[in-house]
Amino acid sequence: MKEQLSYPLNVSTKEALKEIVRGVPPLLKMFYRLLRDPATPRSVKWWIGGSALYLILPFNLKFRKLKTFPLQLLNYVDDVLLIFHTVQRVIRDTPAELLDAHWEHDISLKEWRDLLFKIKVDFQNIF
């Protein structure tokens, strides 16, 4: 049975973004711990490692000819999409007891993930 998301949340988009940003350090810490934990599925380790490698490599999709502001955002879209997809895959493919053991934040991982879902839906409604 699929887990129900608690969207729509009774928080503004601004408040949700603040809470998501506060959850980034615990998320990075959790990713590091998952990489070191032998119980973590190999596919999850590949997603974390591969995404980190892609984000730190010096070459990237750069559209140098696109000088106007809205088109310059294309330089960052691939990174943002990769980060969102990686977070979703790691949370989906990792056993819940491992996620709970490695998550250290004042809100639960489920609540933090629901905030991500809220932002995703809010941005889809804009565009």
List the helices and strands and how they pair.
Elements: H1 13-22, H2 24-36, H3 42-56, H4 69-72, H5 74-93, H6 96-102, H7 109-126
Describe this structure as you would to a colleague.
This protein is an all-alpha fold and 127 residues long. 69% of the residues lie in helices and 0% in strands. The protein contains 7 helices and no strands. The longest helix is centred in the middle third of the chain and has 20 residues, at 74-93. The protein starts with 12 loop residues before the first helix and ends with a helix.
Q: Which whole number gives the mean pLDDT? A: 83
| Strand content range | under 5%
Oligomeric assembly: single chain
Coarse morphology: globular
List the keywords:
single chain, 127 residues, mainly alpha, 7 helices, 0% strand
Please give a quick description of this structure:
This protein is an all-alpha fold and 127 residues long. Helices cover 69% and strands 0% of the residues.
